[in-house]
Amino acid sequence: MLKLGIVGLPNVGKSTLFNALTSAKADAANYPFCTVEPNIGMVEVPDHRLAHLTALVRPRKVVPAVVQFVDIAGLVRGAAEGEGLGNKFLANVRETDAIVHVVRCFDDPDVTHVMGTVDPVRDRDVVDLELALADLSVVDKRLERTRRAARANEKEAIAELGALEKAHAVLAAGGSVRLAELSAAERSLLLPLALLTAKPVLYAANVTDAELTGHEGPHLASLRAAVTQSGERAEVVPFSARIEAELAELPPSDRAEFLATLGLKSAGLDRLIPAGYHLLGLRTFFTAGEQEVRAWTIHDGDTAPVAAGVIHSDFERGFIRAETAGYGDFIADGGWKGAREKGAVRSEGRDYVVRDGDVMLFRFNV
């Protein structure tokens, strides 16, 4: 299951986005620090393929892939020293796979900005610095213990020390570990620390309605330029908190028509989650039978036994083969029976790398 943590300054649209995504109705008001406890919500991954498989197979049960969102109180300059609500909730974000950084990119005198003016580049830098300072505190503590252990010639500590010192230097300068020059082995050594600045970031830009239809304003343009200049491998996904709030109040059957009246094809949810999948290199495969049609999440490059293990560890341990059909063939041929008759079902072994959209049936023996 993909886990995304939502961060940003207070009152930039974080909780409104969270509400729209999860329909959880968390507090979302026009004043700073409205969210005083972390909000956690589960969201179904939008995937039209699951609906088509369901219509074809007509199972008793349908289970989509899900994403967990964690929304915490807004960070402000000085949070690491206790300003505002401080960083007391950042522990909730440490266990996520990636960070959704919500940035305000619109002017509106009726919507309070905690820093007085709208400047998405400055706002991004403020939050990044507070995350770096929070990480610096974690690395400081670990570094002290590791240096003692390294002086005692403990091999694991000696190996870890170099990675910690590199991370410390980057964080002390206000930088992010994800942008540091670290080897894959060094990054692996830092994983147990769950550093916030080591996580991939997806920028959710809260923009005006007009900008969603292609008329990009200066605030959004400046944010894109800053992200590009930093060298981050990050996507910027525009959304309108106002539109998302209105969509959340509508029944699902009316949402497409509402979007069409605004000249939009999709809501923020339909763009944000796929962007998260792309950022993290995630893929989807399906199982489809009379009992259940389900979407499963794996990483790009995962083999058939690894995919089987996502369903159950016994499937991976006793893996024999995977009967596999591409999504397009499975639909075009009318399901398993037709796909087998037309030779579209392949028998794949342990080395098969699962493709996005594969429909799979695992054979195993434990």
What share of residues are in beta strands? 15-25%
Order of helices and strands: EHEHEEHEHHHEHEHHHEEHHEHHEE
How would the global form be characterised? flat
Q: Please mark out the parts with pLDDT under 50 across 5 or more consecutive residues, or reply none.
A: 24-37
Q: What value does the Rg take, in angstroms?
A: 23 Å
If helices are DSSP runs of H or I spanning 4 or more residues, what is the number of helices?
14
User: Whole-Å distance between the termini?
Assistant: 26 Å
What percentage of residues falls in helices of 4 or more residues? 40-55%
**Total beta strand runs:** 12
**How many strands, which pairing sense, and closed or not: the largest β-sheet?**
6 strands, mixed
Strand order of the largest sheet: 2-4-1-5-6-7
Residue-averaged pLDDT, rounded?
87
Q: Provide the structure class.
A: alpha/beta
Give structural notes:
With 366 residues, this protein is α/β, with parallel strands linked by helices. 41% of the residues lie in helices and 19% in strands. The chain has helices at residues 14-22, 48-57, 90-94, 120-151, 155-172, 184-190, 218-230, 241-249, 252-261, 268-280, 304-311, 313-317, 327-332, 336-341; strands spanning 2-7, 39-44, 61-63, 66-71, 98-104, 201-206, 236-239, 282-288, 292-299, 319-325, 346-348, 359-364. A six-stranded mixed β-sheet has the order 2-4-1-5-6-7, sandwiched between helices. Strands 3-9-8 form a three-stranded mixed β-sheet, sandwiched between helices. Helix 7 (218-230) links the parallel strand 6 and strand 7 (236-239). Mean pLDDT is 87; it is low at 24-37.
